[in-house]
Amino acid sequence: MFTHVIRRTFIPCLIQRSLSIATTNSTLSSSPIRICIVGSGPAGFYLTQNLLKLSQTIPTTIDIIEKAPVPFGLVRYGVAPDHPEVKNVMHTFTKIAEHENVRFIGNVHIGKTIGLKELQDFYHVVVLAYGSSVERSLNIPGEKTLANVFSAKDFVGWYNVGVPENAELRPQLDRTDRAVIVGMGNVALDCARILLSSIDDLAKTDITDQALDILRQSRIRHVTLVGRRGPMQVSFTIKELRELTKLTGVQSRLNQEDFNRIDQNMIDKLERPRKRLTELLLKTVQAKHSNEKVAERCWYLKFWRRPKQFNGKTTVESIDFEHTQPVANRSFSEENLPVQQNQTIETIPCGLVIKSIGYQGIQIDPWLPFDHERGIILNRQNRIDDRPGFYCAGWIGRGARGVIAETTTESHTIAKRIIDDIEHGRLINLRDIKSGGDGLVSLVKSRQVRCISYEDWKKLDAHETNLGLSKGKPREKILNIQKMLELTAP
Ligand code: FAD
Q: Start and end of every FAD/NAD(P)-binding domain (predicted)?
């Protein structure tokens, strides 16, 4: 009751004061609404952009806090090096970061350097947009013990942009000509493309020199992607499939029998993206029959199989798969068919395994309501359960799926919800916070951690870009955190 009364009286007061500040055209020094966004990936940046647009009559400051010394999340550490057009969003993000009311504070690990609750001393609104950083496990024999079995997250971290902790992964690509990728999503296709692409093409991207050297020695010629469901349930998208079908010197080897069940009537009932994807898959099956030439390298899709165990003495030599089949159930659409295993076991030989079965988020602070099963923050319409003033955005709020464009659309809705809550007095952290980001930076400093500003990052950015240019690449990434800190030093 008491809180309710305070809420009704104080917040309009705060807003009114802010509004009057805005109309008298003065700076935001006295009482802006202080917002903090944890995570500098697409969700964090697009949300900032939308908050700036929607809060024009409410003086607002937005601090983006990032645990890495560098910004951009998976755009830097996930998106494949041969997708430079996707990485171009970094230019948009730079404009956002350089807005006068926005501040980037890197190298601050929320949940370690600073607790979540402590953020309330500096901010009225906290949005958690810290992504999904852990890969799911299969929990089957050989997964953790055999060499050359990797999670896609680690493999991507190694080849792609050198996530510092994966820089030393060193997959042995010269000891086998067969790789199996477990999973049929876009990340699985990214890994297949990197394994099958020509070195000359990869050398023009921002792939690390270290990864390029190992890929140069690669003997991999056959890449098989295995999924536990069928061709109508794959989770990759048409762009990634098309890229794989167009690789020079690489042939697709899809099995016609896997597609016999799909007729025109089924295709016509699908939503447009799935319809176009299925049509391309069918076209790809047929293309195989009209091109009998021996290919340098090949990729295969094997459906209705679930891994049961990895075999080998010290390094993986094969995988046992159990066959699966759809469970007939009218309450599920074709795309969401559940499966059950049957008794058939098949052993597929391979010397490299990449498990690409999805990412999930982690609870960064025990105070945060969390769904450990789904790996997301407990929330209703992005408002975190029982934590007024706390919101979530991006993969950590809705689960690790979807491309950047989905995050863009979602962030507009979330920004509207936050502004609506501010305008309707639904915040309860009502203190007149004077220090905001400055206070946070002082606290971080007192804990012997150096914050990285956007200006600091730009020094590292220039260094990486220049290093890349000298090698004919858009960028050569620095892998070592200590080196990153040195290069961003004031
Ligand atoms: P992230 O991008 O993961 O950003 C989260 C940020 O939070 C990170 O910077 C992280 O360091 C930071 N953080 C984490 N914990 C903390 C903490 N405790 N304190 C402070 N900061 C923290 N989409 C496309 O459109 N095209 C593609 O080609 C494409 N390729 C992809 C390839 C891979 C391998 C993956 C995994 C995804 C790809 N995606 C692609 C999807 C896209 O990357 C996601 O949709 C998007 O990055 C999700 O944004 P996010 O901000 O929620 O998470």
A: 34-233
